Amino acid sequence: MQAMKFGFRIIFFALLQVLALFLFSCSRETPEQRQARLLSEIDQSVKTAQTMIFEEKYANAIEFLEKALSTYGDNAKIFETLAFAYSADKKFDMAGMYFEKAGDLDGSNPDLYLNAASAYEQAKIYPAAAGAYRKYIDKVPDSSLALKKFAICLEKQDLFEEALNAYHAFQKASKRSLTSDEAASIGSLYVKVKNYPQAKRWLEAALGATLPENVKTRSVIYAAMIEMYLNQKDMASLQKAHDELAKINPELLNSNWPDLTKQLADYNQKLKDAQEAIKKANEAKILEEKRLAEEKAKAEAKKKADEEKLAAAKASEEVKKQEQIEEVAEPVVTPEERQRNEFDENFAKGDFPKAEKIAQNMVAKKPSSSEAWRCLSKSYTAQGKNRDAFYAAREAMRNSPDDVSETLLYLSTAGKILNNETYLDEIYKAKEKFPNNCEIMLGMARTYAVLGNKTEAKYAYEQFFKLADSEHPLRQQATEELQKLDSPESLEPAEDVDFPSEQGKVEQSAKSESAKQDTDEASDSKIEGASGEDKVQAAEASAESGSDVEKADKEQEDNKAQAETAQPDDKAEKNKSESEKNTETTK
To answer: Based on the domain organization, do 94 and 107 belong to the same domain?
Structure first.
């Protein structure tokens, strides 16, 4: 009996041990179960903190989340929620730090770096903000928003070269035209790095695109210009920029340059005094020169009287010899000269149809004569036959390709039938052949003005003034056009291009060909460098419409062949019908 009890006890204790082991194994968590439980607790803590933030209990939420960090360790969700709590509590430096920590832990959400950078900016901690933007750009390199804000942060740290690089990266990533405000910022940075040619180009472009009522952007532009012109000692440009900024934002002017207004006034007074002194010196010089000239005139008058006596004696001998000549050979007038004289007489009388027939006969007799084709083109122009005048002028230019007057005639007629882009292409060809011709540069300036490209138009006008002498008949008209180009009305492009015809000084054109080499090189450099958006559009339009000139080649060759078969004047009546047919074909 006792043995049985002892056996039951052994079995009972064994069962207890098995049951204890079973219960222990059931109560033990796996790693996956523990991780799931911790994530659930973290999510619940985040939701609780978000509720506190919503209830504007920012201090309680911050304290609660910091305890959660102590309990669960570093966690992206806790960091992000804690950052929002600090941001709501206006503690932007702490908010930026926790946003950045959250971004470092959660690589799948780069926007956390944007939040960090924004918080740092509000706290005016620009180095930290730039660092956060740099982390975001490493993950999203084509973000134009981040690149622009990154550039602004670098500029606030006076890292101007790096800011310029960031701005240009933003320009490339944005894939759009820059606003006037963005262009002004880039121009201001170029001033900071003392790259004044680029600064002037960006600032002038920004100013041209900024509306008058946009005082903020215009103030930035004029302030940058003042700094640039001060460094360059360009007093005339400095005065203009100073006056414009004084009109729209005198507070900024007085804040940045409190003594500038007085300094400019003193400079202008000294300049005026110097000009007065120079004027008086010049007047005294003129009086002295006048006295010397009078003395010289008296001496020359005496010398002239002596020479006249000697000349009178010689003239008497010449008269005697002349009286002995019985006949004087009359000049021989060639048939070509006779026809040209007839053409000039009828053209001067206004009988343009008859002048046209004479010119056609001249072409028929000598198709290679550029003068004959020129007369035909003039007669067509006088009758309003612009396309026929264009064809005839082109033949004149082909027969005398090195004669600048024929090229000017061709451009004058081409401007009336070609579109502006194709016409600009023809002007560039003429400019390559005659690079120092002022009339061609004036035609280029007017064409750019029609296309709305003020920068290239101004440059071409400047080249015209350099090449044309002071007595050129078109100088005054070109000056008025340039002044009009700078006025607000010039924002509306003109409808027509008025190219200077061959009536402008041809002698001036020949004189311009011997202009200084540096002017030629500057002009070529400018034209070849004109690769802006307007130049590209003009080239594309020229490619599409360039067939306007090529399309007429065959028709003009047919007309030329028919003109070569025309009869001379003495057979005009016999071949009247054929001549009229040729005339109609040419039209």
So the answer is: yes
